[in-house]
Each structure stands twice: as C-alpha cells, then as structure tokens.
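Morning, I've got a small favour to ask if you have a moment. It would help a lot if you went through both lines with me. I owe you a coffee for this, so here goes:
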Amino acid sequence: MIRGVSTETRPLRADAERNRKRLLDAAVAVFAERGLEASTAEIARRAGVGQGTVFRRFPTKDDLVAAIVVDRLGVITDVAAALLAQPPADGRVLAFMAELASMHVRDHGLIEAVNGTRALADPAVHDAHGSLMDVLEELVKADREAGLVRDDLGAFDVMALGKAVASACEPGLPGASWKRYLAVVAAGLRPTDEKLPGRAPTRAQLDRMLAELARESPSS
C-alpha cells in the first residue's frame, strides 16, 4: 500500500513551511546527486534539520518523493496558468514548452532518479498531474482557437514534446541546446491540413500506466 501525503494538504505555520521547503530542496539536490539510495540522514543534514523532523513530515521515502513530485507539478501548473492569463505573442504552447524543457534540463538528475518509483502512483501525485493536464488542455485549446497550433495537438503531446526537447540535450555535448530542438518542434506545431498519425494517450491510459509503474517498482 502506498502512503499518501495528506499531511501536505493542511495549512502549515510559517516555520513549519520553511522546514518543509528546506527538506524538499535538500531532497531534490541529494536525490539528483546520489539517486534514491541516498539516506534520510544525509537529506536532514543538507536541510539543517534533525532526522526526526524528516520522519515526522515524511514517514517513508515514498512520501518524500511524492511530495517532491507534487511540488514540481505545482510549479509547472503555475507556469501554465500564468501563460493562460497573459499569453505571449508567440503563443502559449511554445512558451510553456520552453519553460518545461528548461526545468527538465535543470532537474535531469532528479527526474532520472524518480522515474518508475511507486511514489508516482500516490493519490496526491495523481491529483497534481490531473490539475496540470486540465490547465494545459485549456492552454492548447486557446492556441488552437487563435490559429497558432495544429488542430490535432493535445495536452499530452505538448508534455511529451517538451520532455523530448530537453532529453535531446545530453550533458556536456558541444553545441547542444534545447532551444535549437524547440525551434524544430515549433515548425511542426504550426497549423496544417496534414493530420498526425495515431492519437495521443487518453487520461485513462495515463492513469493505467502510472498504476503499472507502481506495481513493477520495488517499495522503498
């Protein structure tokens, strides 16, 4: 059974919120450097708190990883919502993909560590991911109606392409830039009468994929 992160949904005192933020930032850095095998004691030292504080906030490592993912998804959702409210001249979708690719490059080590963990099936992660996809659907719809992107583009397409753009930039590869690959993708986003083959995955299919990942991954 995967533990939820329901404690994260209650309002926190200012000092408790600062401790939580320090813990999440420290965990992000440690997991990115050492993978999920890193000890809770190391995370506590990096955050400048006692190990007991970590366990009170996050009883298991799955809880901690899930909280990190929820936090990151919240940041991405805020980016999408801001673009929906104040669209840039070159379109919401392209601007979102640029920000997503930039964040993906920054968090590359963390993403590699977290992918495939049971925490990805946590209910709070599911809800946060759903909130992001809801806003992103609105973003894509707005750009479609403005004639800025092709009619058969979906929210999942945007997420997948943004990640692909960032993944194409291997660390240390001379001349590699996600901006170069984003420009290539941007050309493919433009409206055209030619339809894309196949269909983007549905939300139900995405949910099943996350559940399958949870079943296949060892519990931490």
Notes: DSSP finds ten helices and no strands in the chain. The two ends are 11 Å apart (CA to CA).
